[in-house]
């Protein structure tokens, strides 16, 4: 359905993407993960046909993303990373304008999406926060009910409740057989919505895998507060991978060997223990070792 083949774009400053290849199957929700500046937007803009590649190609449903850009853009739902609107329109006026451009008469879906995202549709766009504009962008992309949707960091600016509503929307659209490609720098979000993901780092794809396989490589950390120096000594002689974080605090890194950590901690008095949310960084560290962070 979506096919990216050896796509390369080198900007005049030498930055860009190199030899990027991946495929998204029909009906699949595919995550495109990478830190800021990794090349996500550049790749997605090629899919929209906005830029010429230095080499390689991209296609959607057999159509060439550059040559057949107009045809692709008409059918696709797209939320860009930086959304530019007609600032003097209200949210409702903008959405009506888009519907008119597309010749769409049935506004039921638009109304449902406005309710889902609790859009204050009478507010002028120039007076909207980043999160409010993001909601308008999401509604505009989904209201046409497109079969293929490309989302560039779709939840940036959204508060946790709206992020949850977004995840629910993707789950619903997935069950309706939509093909979705979404970029993110947050593992959690991709974990909740996608079956597979590609990871991009410094312009190059480093992995394309099912999410559960990516997570198997995850280096999970636990920050543990111990009661005494004697407990610290147990950790020090345990063979566990850890970093001291304070006089009686350690961060223990685990890669599937949870039982080793639990056995060691069973001999200690643990005052407090927390596992910070899993990050993209931890996947990289799991794959390449702690010295190769992002
Ligand atoms: N028009 C441009 N001219 C020159 N360099 C560019 C241009 N657009 C992007 N870059 C550079 O190409 C690299 C990839 O940028 P890109 O915006 O695709 O990354 P990204 O993964 O989407 O990151 P972000 O989440 O920060 O937008 C970065 O080093 C960026 O500075």
Walk me through the structure.
With 294 residues, the protein is an alpha/beta fold. The chain has helices at residues 40-47, 69-75, 91-102, 108-116, 130-142, 160-175, 187-193, 211-216, 229-236, 258-266, 280-288, and strands at residues 2-10, 16-24, 29-33, 55-60, 63-64, 77-79, 148-152, 179-184, 196-201, 204-210, 220-226, 241-246, 249-254, 270-274. The strands form 3 sheets. Strands 6-7-8-3-9-10 form a 6-stranded mixed sheet, with helices on both faces. The chain has a 4-stranded antiparallel sheet with strand order 2-1-4-5, covered by helices on one side. Helix 3 runs parallel beside helix 5 (130-142) and helix 4 runs antiparallel to helix 5 (130-142). The model has no long low-confidence stretch (mean pLDDT 91). Bound molecules: adenosine-5'-triphosphate (ATP). The site of adenosine-5'-triphosphate (ATP) has 13 residues, from helix 1. Adenosine-5'-triphosphate (ATP) binds next to helix 1.
Write the layout of secondary structure elements.
Layout: E1 2-10, E2 16-24, E3 29-33, H1 40-47, E4 55-60, E5 63-64, H2 69-75, E6 77-79, H3 91-102, H4 108-116, H5 130-142, E7 148-152, H6 160-175, E8 179-184, H7 187-193, E9 196-201, E10 204-210, H8 211-216, E11 220-226, H9 229-236, E12 241-246, E13 249-254, H10 258-266, E14 270-274, H11 280-288
Parallel strand pairs: 3-8, 3-9, 6-7, 7-8
Antiparallel strand pairs: 1-2, 1-4, 4-5, 9-10, 11-13, 11-14, 12-13
Helix pairs in contact: 3-5, 4-5
């Amino acid at each position: 359905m979506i096919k990216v083949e050896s796509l390369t774009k080198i900007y005049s400053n030498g930055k860009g993407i190199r030899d990027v290849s991946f495929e998204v199957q029909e009906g699949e929700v595919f995550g495109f993960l990478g830190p800021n500046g990794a090349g996500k937007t550049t790749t997605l803009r090629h899919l929209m046909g906005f830029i010429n590649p230095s080499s390689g190609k991209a296609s959607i449903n057999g159509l060439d993303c550059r040559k057949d850009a107009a045809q692709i853009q008409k059918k696709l739902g797209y939320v860009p990373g930086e959304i530019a609107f007609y600032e003097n329109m209200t949210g409702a006026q903008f959405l009506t304008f888009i519907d008119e451009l597309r010749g769409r008469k049935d506004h039921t879906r638009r109304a449902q999406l406005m309710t889902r995202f609790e859009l204050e549709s009478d507010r002028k766009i120039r007076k909207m926060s980043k999160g409010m504009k993001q909601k308008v962008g999401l509604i505009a992309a989904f209201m046409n009910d497109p079969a293929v949707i490309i989302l560039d960091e779709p939840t940036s600016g959204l508060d946790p409740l709206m992020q949850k509503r977004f995840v629910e929307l993707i789950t619903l659209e997935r069950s309706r057989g939509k093909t979705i490609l979404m970029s993110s720098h947050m593992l959690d979000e991709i974990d909740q919505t996608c079956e597979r993901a590609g990871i991009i780092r410094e312009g190059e794809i480093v992995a394309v895998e099912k999410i559960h396989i990516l997570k198997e490589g995850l280096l999970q950390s636990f920050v543990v507060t111990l009661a005494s120096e004697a407990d610290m000594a147990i950790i020090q002689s345990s063979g566990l991978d850890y970093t001291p974080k304070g006089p009686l605090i350690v961060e223990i890194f685990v890669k599937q060997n949870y039982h080793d950590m639990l056995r060691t901690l069973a001999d200690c008095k643990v005052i407090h223990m927390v596992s910070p949310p899993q990050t993209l960084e931890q996947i990289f560290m799991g794959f390449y070792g702690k010295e190769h962070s992002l």
